[in-house]
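Batch manifest, entry 17 of 40.
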Amino acid sequence: MLKQYSFLFFLLLIIIYPIKAQINDSESEESYLINDIEISGLKRTKKHVVEKPLNKFIGQDASKIDLNDVRTSIFETGILEPLSVEIEDDPQNKGKILKIEIHEKWSIFPLPVFFINSSGIVGGGLGFIDLNAMGINDKFVVGGLIDTHGWLAGTGYIHTPDINNLLGWNAALFYSKQERTDSDEKDKVIRKFGLSRFLVTAGINYEITEPTLVYLNLTFTDAKLHGIDHPFAVPEDGGSIISLSPGFRILKNNWDGYFLSQKSIEIGYRYSFGIDSSSFQRIDFKTNFEKSLVPGFRMFFRGGIIYAPETPPVFESGPRSVNISILPQSYSAQNFFGTSAGLEKYFFKRSWGTLSILSSYQVVYSDGPILGERIDHGVLGAIQFYLSKIAIPAVGLGVSYNASAGYLLGAFNVGMSF
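Output type: structure tokens
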């Protein structure tokens, strides 16, 4: 009998012990999982603006979370800066808490503008910008500019989807009346005419997964010619078009403590239905690859293609559309293929911003009805200032040299990188 009980006890031990061990392992695993996020420092911004990019960390093993990934998710909002990121034990429950202290960047400000360039264009204006409208990371802008070639005014709004809604939208309205000048690679004017442009656009976008976004925009553009002094090489006519533009973008960011580096691919297609002008098509491709070699020192490669061989002159593109700085902004063509590769190194960093220096080598192919096919190449050197307290990406001053044309250009940018 004793032997029978001993056998039963041994059998139960074999069955129960693995179950108990499994329960203990489960409890042990739970004690290392992130079960809550605590956010402090928010004043104007709604809590869900931060919760949306951070929700992916709920349920993750705390020991496997890279805190730089958490900081990157916060920087990606464009309006917030993480002051501290910590993982602590949850005193109320088993598990871990992701605790984050946030600083809100200045997002509401008037934007006085003054500019002058080597082409002799002088101008200025005033705008009002709210990059965190209603505290939900929406964007609103209204303003106007006047320069030696004319004036423009406009307004726009971008809605960022919240944690429960993945659908975003945008709308904008612009009007301009200017003396349009198209130049060659040495900034010599090859075409000059008066152009009034009215544009209204609206679009929606949907985030399929965190890095992948699809979008659809609908735009009405009315471009009319008007008289100016001494016009030449004037296009036959302007025109009104309705454009339908679907596309998608894959974007991933990484924060190294100095730079928010980006890896992205965007492909878009546009069909423009001519109301009182010819219809035409356009294909866009853009890619950006930025990688930190060590914190504060990164390499980058950028490329872009615009293929629109039937585009009327008043709707042609400029080199900025493919991130090229060695051609004048007034350079106009139907087709572009541009690439640039370079390095960027931080010079110094303070609590209010980071100053960096960069250099790149650029190559661009262009094709248009007046200038024909060209290949240009050259170098760019620039100083960039990334503002940590204001929700503007960068302010930069640069000089480029087009070796093919033997032409030197200067540039000043606000709100974009070279």
